[in-house]
């Protein structure tokens, strides 16, 4: 990760879709920008099928959850922090009714040893055709 003025970018996480870094360090805290399931270097989103117009025709929330968690891990580790250092996670879902149970089950797998504070909210849309995004805060030495 490059470090200019405490701005950090991962070489493994998907490229930001706007003018923002993957993370920013302030003291011993690491603030992550919203992280989705996209993979670096491709427009294809794991677990998402789109029509020619770019509309979602189907999606797999489990695949998206696992991809998001991996992207968060990439950013944390590239910054010099780690999964076990997460202290606060805000989760944005576009379909709470259909996706919460699956997301909550997978979340429990990934966070069984470290239990950061968590807030889960439903929103009607994200900037890209995804069903989940995480906003995280971690500690960093």
Plain-language structure description:
With 141 residues, this protein is α+β, with helices and mostly antiparallel strands. It is 24% helix and 30% strand. It is built from 2 helices and 9 strands. The strands form 2 sheets. Strands 1-2-3-4-9-7-8 form a 7-stranded mixed beta sheet. It has a two-stranded antiparallel sheet with strand order 5-6. A hairpin with a 5-residue loop joins strand 5 (48-50) and strand 6 (56-59). The protein is globular and about 45 Å long. It starts with a strand and ends with a strand. The model has no long low-confidence stretch (mean pLDDT 94).
Write the layout of secondary structure elements.
Blueprint: E1 2-4, E2 7-9, E3 23-26, E4 29-32, E5 48-50, E6 56-59, H1 61-79, E7 86-93, H2 96-110, E8 117-122, E9 132-139
Parallel strand pairs: 7-8
Antiparallel strand pairs: 1-2, 2-3, 3-4, 4-9, 5-6, 7-9
Helix pairs in contact: 1-2
The largest pleated sheet is described as:
7 strands, mixed
Overall shape: it is globular
Topology, number of strands:
9
- The ordered string of helix (H) and strand (E) elements is EEEEEEHEHEE
* Gap between N and C termini: 15 Å
What's the number of helices?
Answer: 2
């Amino acid at each position: 990760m490059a470090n200019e003025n405490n701005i950090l970018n991962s070489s493994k996480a998907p490229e930001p879709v706007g003018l923002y870094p993957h993370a920013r360090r302030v003291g011993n805290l690491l603030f992550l920008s919203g992280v989705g399931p996209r993979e670096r270097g491709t427009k294809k989103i794991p677990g998402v099928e789109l029509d020619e117009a770019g509309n979602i025709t189907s999606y797999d929330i489990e695949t998206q959850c696992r991809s998001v968690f991996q992207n968060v891990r990439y950013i944390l580790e590239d910054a010099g922090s780690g999964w076990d250092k997460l202290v606060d996670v805000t989760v944005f879902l576009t379909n709470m009714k259909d996706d919460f149970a699956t997301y909550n089950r997978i979340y429990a797998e990934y966070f069984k040893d470290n239990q950061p504070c968590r807030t889960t909210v439903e929103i009607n849309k994200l900037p890209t055709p995804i069903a989940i995004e995480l906003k995280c805060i971690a500690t960093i030495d």
